[in-house]
Design a protein that fits this description.
mainly alpha; Methane Monooxygenase Hydroxylase, Chain G, domain 1; 4 domains; two-stranded antiparallel ribbon; phosphatidylinositol-4,5-bisphosphate binding; phosphatidylinositol-3-phosphate binding
């Protein structure tokens, strides 16, 4: 039964030849019947209409088996069988044949049965239609036919099942509603076999069939047209065409499903991003409204904000990735997906940009608050430094140091002014940002938070303004005090200078004002110059006294004792007394010299022939007395109230002045003698 087959040969009526080889082993009629049914189902109806010629090879079997097979053909294929050729062994069934003549049973069987030897089959069938087993030339490899038939059957079964599955999937994808399509695709999404494998098997089978048709079978024998009918090449081509069509549709369904799945995944991720940003992300920002009350507090809020930004950055990274995926789908997407994709992209972008703007606004607000508190702290330190400087008592060494301290004080006050101006600018900028904060509140009333921030900022600025005003008031007082101290030092310096000037005048009086004049006129001139000199000294002394009086007033105003005015006044009075004593001595000498020169000049200018009366003698005595008195004064030092002594000029200067007086006294003496000589001669005469 293994070799029961249709060889592809044909009888003289073009009917197919069916060969049934029998063997010595027991033959199962049921299996034979099933096999015959299968073989008879292979040819087309057109081939079946031409009838079959059945060759029952009984050379290796028993007669009763042969008879059973022939009778079975009556029950299985009576209409299709036209001739049954029983190949008998030589001289083996003669006696048994006499008991059953098939030709007598032709009407009952429905077909003709002949007993024939193998070498005589050519009487009924052409040799080219018989295989080598029956003396023919038809090339037939039963195992090759069986393998190809098995491949065909497997391909037919798999392709038919696959077509049903693909049709179910494809038809399900064409249903009306989206939910029905998705439910149908979900239930039958994966075929039971790989379509690519089935298609490859079909193409290989078709290629083999086509190769046999155009190139012939092994040995170069021409192709038999039965191959198309037995191996059903058209069926393979039809199945392949159907498979390709359904598989193409299936691939499109898969592509649509993949695209839908990708779109759903993107939509799910978009909603995750949106839900987090509008949920926990927004809630984090809602709880962060303070700006801190110091640099440290603002820095702590900035650090907290950086943590919030770090969490947001992870979702922003997902947003960037999703935006790229959506852009790629928009470039390659179908018209039906464009609206949905653009809506997702717009929704995602709106939420992300709004949240990013809120983060940036919060960061800018905290940075502005940090800058405000930094300026406030710097200003506070400047005010503390200025206040500390004002609280320290001023004890400068001189007016220059006071001027330097006053300049430093003015510079610090100017720096405070600039700092306060910068604080106002930073504060106003921060207040402007806070006023815009309500637009980012996501529906939350932030009036309370804003009021606290505004009150804090305004409170800091007002406090700094008050501190600065107090410092300015103290600076005004300190400036007045320091200016008074500058004036005090100036008065003390000028008073000391007046003492020096007066001392210089005294020194000049003693050292340079030593001449007494050669005559009365010159002496009077010297006396007039001396009086002017005294006037200068008097002015210097008065100026010094006024300065010292001003010093006393300033010390009383400053509530301090002058370091130098205490000994300046005694020095001034002492020098002035010395100058007064010296000046009086100078005046007395000059007046004595005027009297001496006037009398001497009067005596010397009188005519000797006209002697004066007795009064002239008295004049001579007076001039001698004046001259001696003047000479005595030139040798006497000036005695000061403290007991100290001081001479006018050098000894040589005094000797020169005395010599000049003595010469004039000699002239007066000669004059006196001349006047006395006539008196002596008169009595003698």
């Amino acid at each position: 039964l293994l070799f029961l087959s249709e060889t592809g040969g044909k009888d003289r009526r073009s009917g197919l030849i069916l060969t049934i080889p029998l063997c010595l082993e027991q033959t199962s009629m049921d299996e034979l019947s099933v096999t015959l049914d299968y073989l008879l189902s292979i040819p087309s109806e057109k081939c079946k209409a031409r009838g079959f010629t059945v060759i029952v090879d009984g050379r290796k079997s028993q007669w009763n088996v042969v008879k059973t097979v022939v009778l079975m053909l009556q029950n299985v294929v009576p209409a299709e069988v036209s001739l049954v050729c029983v190949v008998k062994p030589d001289e083996f069934w003669d006696k048994k044949v006499t008991h059953f003549c098939f030709w007598k049973e032709k009407d009952r069987l429905g077909f003709e049965v002949i007993l024939v030897s193998a070498n005589k089959l050519t009487r009924y069938i052409e040799p080219c239609q018989l295989t080598e087993d029956f003396g023919g030339t038809l090339t037939y490899d039963h195992m090759d036919w069986l393998n190809k038939r098995l491949v065909f059957e497997k391909f037919t079964k798999e392709s038919t099942s696959l077509l049903d599955e693909l049709a179910l999937i494809n038809n399900g994808s064409d249903k009306g509603t989206q939910q029905e399509r998705e439910r149908s695709i979900d239930l039958n999404f994966l075929p039971s076999v790989d379509p690519e494998t089935v298609l490859q098997t079909g193409h290989e089978l078709l290629s083999e069939l086509q190769q046999r048709r155009f190139n012939g079978s092994d040995g170069g024998v021409s192709w038999s047209p039965m191959d198309d009918e037995l191996l059903a090449q058209p069926q393979v081509m039809k199945l392949l065409d159907s498979l390709r069509e359904q598989y193409t549709r299936y691939q499109e369904v898969c592509r649509q499903r993949s695209k839908r799945t990708q779109l759903e995944e993107i939509q799910q991720k978009v909603m995750q991003v949106v839900n987090w940003l509008e949920g926990p992300g927004s809630e984090q920002l809602r709880t962060q409204w303070g700006i801190g009350d110091s640099i440290r507090a603002s820095q702590a809020l900035q650090q907290k904000h950086e943590e919030i930004e770090s969490q947001h950055s992870e979702w922003f990274a997902v947003y960037v990735e999703l935006n790229q995926q959506i852009a790629a789908l928009l470039n390659a997407g179908d018209e039906e997906d464009l609206v949905e994709l653009k809506a997702l992209q717009q929704q995602l972008s709106d939420v992300c940009y709004r949240q990013a703007s809120q983060l940036e606004f919060r960061q800018n607000l905290l940075q502005a608050a940090l800058e405000f508190h930094s300026v406030a702290q710097d200003l506070s330190q400047q005010l503390d430094g200025l206040l500390g400087m004002l609280c320290v008592d001023v004890a400068p060494a001189d007016g220059a140091s006071i001027q330097q301290t006053l300049k430093l004080l003015e510079e610090k006050l100017k720096s405070v002014d600039l700092g306060l101006q910068g604080l106002r600018e930073k504060g106003q900028s921060l207040l402007d940002q806070i006023s815009n904060q309500a637009s980012w509140a996501y529906g939350k009333d932030v009036t309370i938070e804003n009021k606290e921030n505004v009150d804090h900022i305004q409170g800091v600025m007002e406090d700094m303004q008050l501190r600065k005003q107090r410092c300015e008031d103290m600076v005004d007082v300190r400036r007045l005090k320091m200016l008074q101290m500058v004036q005090l030092f100036k008065c003390e310096e000028d008073a000391a200078q007046a003492v020096e000037w007066l001392s210089e005048l005294l020194d000049a009086l003693l050292k340079t004002h030593i001449r007494l004049g050669d005559d009365a006129q010159e002496t009077k001139v010297l006396l007039e110059k001396h009086r002017k000199f005294v006037d200068v000294a008097q002015s210097t002394y008065d100026y010094g006294r006024q300065l010292l009086q001003a010093t006393v007033v300033l010390c009383q105003s400053l509530r301090c004792t002058s370091r130098s005015s205490g000994d300046t006044l005694p020095r001034l009075n002492r020098v002035w007394k010395q100058f007064t004593v010296t000046s009086e001595e100078r005046v007395h000498r000059l007046e004595t010299a005027v009297a001496f020169h006037s009398t001497a000049e009067k005596i010397l200018q009188e005519c000797p022939e006209q002697p004066e009366s007795f009064n002239e003698v008295e004049q001579f005595d007076e001039i001698e007395a004046v001259g001696k008195s003047l000479l005595d004064r030139l040798t006497v030092p000036v005695v000061y109230p403290d007991g100290s002594e001081q001479y006018f000029g050098s000894p040589s200067d005094m000797a020169s002045a005395a010599e000049h007086i003595r010469e004039k006294m000699k002239l007066v003496s000669l004059k006196k003698q001349q006047l006395r000589q006539p008196e002596a001669t008169t009595p003698e005469s």
